[in-house]
Amino acid sequence: MLSVIHTQGDDTLARVYIAELADGAKIEFVESIQPPIPRDQKWVLIVSTLKGCPVGCPICDAGGDYRGKLSSFEIIAQIDEMIRRRYPDLVVPIPKLKIQFARMGDPVLNDAVLEVLSKLPEHITAPGLLPCISTVAPAGCDGFFESLITIKEELYTGGRFQMQFSLHTTDADARSKLVPVKTWSLEQMATYGNRFYRAGDRKITLNFAPAQGLPLDPESIIDIFSPDRFMIKLTPINPTSASHRAGLTGLIDPAERDQCRRIVDRFRGAGYDTLLSIGEARENTIGSNCGMYVARMEQEKKATSPVR
Question: pLDDT tens-digit profile of 193-208?
Fold first, then answer.
């Protein structure tokens, strides 16, 4: 079903796994820790849900070679591959086991993700299980979103689920340049988020990997997304081939700490809980931060292949 053909990285920070499926498609998944937090306190698994991605965001290398949806078995196989290397019996005694459906493909485009979320609490024994859905909120996926509310309320109450909308800019028109498919409006995301959120839940995350030249104005969204239910995460634009081709330069620059602090302060000043999420620079070399390592591996293979 799934055969690991390559790994990249190390266990002190992050490891990328490249796997080949029965139909020849290649996918990738990642395990990482977040120093200085040790693995026995927090372990992050990031899995693919699609074979490539049909969206084609200009900051991500997963687009351009979409080959369909993964089955629930293929998604769970990624999780099993990483867990069994350390816990063969699938018993994970870690306070926080975060499983992000956020590597290749927007998870909302695949209903098999709902099956996985329903099966996980019985499939693995993990008191710290924390699933995370990260989505651009594609239009036409209302059924998925409705089912997600039901699953969360049945299986993941009390702050044991993380919901994240990827916005990247506070301006709807500018966002269409970064997310080149029809999506929910900001107002629709907020309406859904208000229904999704219950007392005791984690706040819904609004993720921004902001680019220079595109609006980033906390005051323009404060009347849409209440700080009581939504929080802000600010991240750099990953150094992907796609972002380089698009000429995008990130506003969150690890080398410009004062600028990052000013941006954080603007959101906090508007009342939002705000997280500045900057990974280790070594992750860019490993490829765990770079959107899609498969694309890099295929490019390197072509570059080293003999000319005929």
Answer: 999 999 999 999 999 9
**pTM exceeds cut of 0.85:** yes
Instruction: Please give the structure tokens belonging to residue 285.
Output: 């070399």
Could you tell me which of 243, 281, 287 has the C-alpha nearest to residue 30? 287
Are 6 and 131 found together in one domain? yes
Give the C-alpha separation, 176 to 171, whole Å: 9
Q: Are residues 166 and 220 in the same domain?
A: yes
Q: Kindly report the number of other CB atoms within 10 A of residue 307's CB atom.
A: 3
Domain limit, last residue, from 79, 108, 135? 135
Token pair for 266: 């603007």
130 and 156 share one domain? no
Instruction: Give CA 133 to chain center in angstroms.
Output: 7
Q: Quick one: tokens of 274?
A: 């705000």
- Residue 272: which domain range? 137-281
Contacts (Cβ under 8 Å, ≥6 apart) of 199: none
Q: Which two tokens stand for residue 11?
A: 């266990």
Mean pLDDT of the chain: 91
Mind listing the pLDDT tens digit for each residue in 27-84? 999 999 999 999 999 999 999 999 988 887 877 777 667 889 999 999 999 999 999 9
